């Protein structure tokens, strides 16, 4: 049997019940927390109705050690609004002392009665503990005049990848796509090695700085996972980037859901448009079958045991037509893909999550060794800054 098709093994570093983990307080100091406290942050999403928020802004300081000793947001000058997401607004700000530019994400609190939302607590707690060049870095957490206003101060990147794709005049070259994909896989491998699922990878959640460095951002849906796996919330992941096991109602899922999203992003960088554009979950699955072929029990054991599999009439498409979605003319509206690139994309978009390639294995794929090799990030083409106010 091809070793790449064998059931994969999980990382050896498995969390233990009494294991001590480390996180970082808002002023950058390390602090130890016990596993049961850490588990509070990775509590089964399905129970959020019974513990929806950390209550009352008047007691947030006691209940959230990460906020202890935080500086005031007044240390930053707010320059312009960048965007508003599901879990908070983002501003461009300047450190008054150093003049350095940062992104300030205001954590959305619905109201004082409901208190600090669990999604925001997870995002803060996960991000302050991560350190990787391709994961957005949180410098500190700052507060307003009272704890009703809480901000994450993050490194600033000049470009939103979705806006870059929408506005670029020429497609990325093969070497540039390889560089971006290599960086994305490196960041995802780091997250998975540290037992973090992002659960919403898409081009609009990727940033690019003026040095060509890609940053994974927006961890509002991220969560810690453990072995053995537990049932997690559905739906997660934006529809166009959502893995087939999620669409078919899998109650437990693995880091393979992030890998599927990476495959979709890889195709989008080459085509400058999304690969699967369904308006509903059924249509999304149909788009997959049309391009990748219709799955069956032979290539995906356990397919028909998924909750929604028997509710859908599968349109039979026996052939994989993925290669037809790419142009051989590199100067056209799309960038071509080599046979090795297509092989890697198919491994990222493998139906069976147990056979889907892992991030670290993908980094070792021969696609990155063929000519042209990944361009150095500093040599990436440049773009007008998309996150700066036009006024």
Automatic annotation (TrEMBL):
Keywords: ATP-binding, Kinase, Nucleotide-binding, Phosphoprotein, Serine/threonine-protein kinase, Transferase
Record field: compositional bias (Basic and acidic residues): 12-22
Residue ranges, compositional bias (Basic residues): 1-11
Residue spans crossing the bilayer: none
Signal peptide: none
Similarity comment: Belongs to the protein kinase superfamily. CMGC Ser/Thr protein kinase family. CDC2/CDKX subfamily.
Identification of the protein by name: Protein kinase domain-containing protein
Natural source organism: Galdieria yellowstonensis
Organism lineage: Eukaryota, Rhodophyta, Bangiophyceae, Galdieriales, Galdieriaceae
């Amino acid at each position: 049997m091809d070793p790449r098709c064998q059931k994969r093994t999980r990382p050896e570093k498995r969390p233990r019940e009494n294991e001590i983990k480390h996180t970082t307080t808002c002023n950058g100091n390390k602090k130890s927390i016990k596993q049961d406290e850490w588990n509070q942050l990775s509590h089964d999403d399905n129970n959020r109705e019974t513990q929806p928020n950390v209550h009352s802004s008047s007691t947030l300081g006691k209940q959230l050690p990460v906020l202890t000793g935080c500086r005031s947001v007044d240390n930053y000058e707010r320059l312009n609004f960048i965007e508003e997401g599901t879990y908070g607004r983002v501003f461009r700000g300047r450190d008054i002392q150093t003049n350095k530019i940062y992104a300030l994400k205001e954590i959305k609190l619905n109201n004082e009665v409901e208190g600090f939302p669990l999604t925001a607590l997870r995002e803060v707690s996960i991000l302050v503990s991560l350190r990787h060049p391709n994961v957005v870095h949180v410098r500190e957490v700052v507060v307003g005049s009272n704890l009703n206003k809480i901000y994450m101060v993050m490194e600033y990147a000049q470009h939103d990848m979705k806006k870059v794709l929408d506005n670029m005049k020429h497609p990325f070259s093969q070497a540039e796509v390889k560089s971006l994909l290599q960086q994305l896989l490196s960041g995802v491998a780091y997250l998975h090695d540290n037992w973090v699922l992002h659960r919403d990878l898409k081009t609009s959640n990727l940033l690019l700085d003026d040095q060509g460095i890609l940053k994974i951002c927006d961890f509002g849906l991220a969560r810690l996972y453990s072995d053995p796996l537990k049932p997690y919330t559905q739906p997660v992941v934006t529809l166009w980037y959502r893995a087939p096991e999620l669409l078919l109602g899998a109650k437990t899922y693995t880091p393979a859901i992030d890998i599927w999203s990476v495959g979709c992003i890889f195709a989008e960088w080459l085509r400058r448009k999304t690969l699967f554009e369904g308006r509903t979950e059924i249509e999304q699955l149909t788009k997959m079958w049309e391009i990748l072929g219709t799955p069956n029990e032979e290539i995906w054991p356990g397919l028909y045991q998924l909750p929604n599999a028997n509710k859908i009439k599968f349109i039979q498409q026996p052939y994989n037509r993925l290669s037809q979605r790419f142009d051989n003319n590199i100067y056209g509206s799309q960038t071509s893909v080599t046979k090795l690139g297509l092989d890697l994309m198919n491994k990222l978009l493998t139906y069976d999550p147990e056979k889907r390639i892992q991030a670290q294995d993908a980094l070792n794929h021969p696609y990155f060794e063929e000519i042209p090799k990944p361009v150095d990030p500093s040599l990436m083409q440049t773009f007008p800054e998309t996150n700066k106010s036009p006024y």
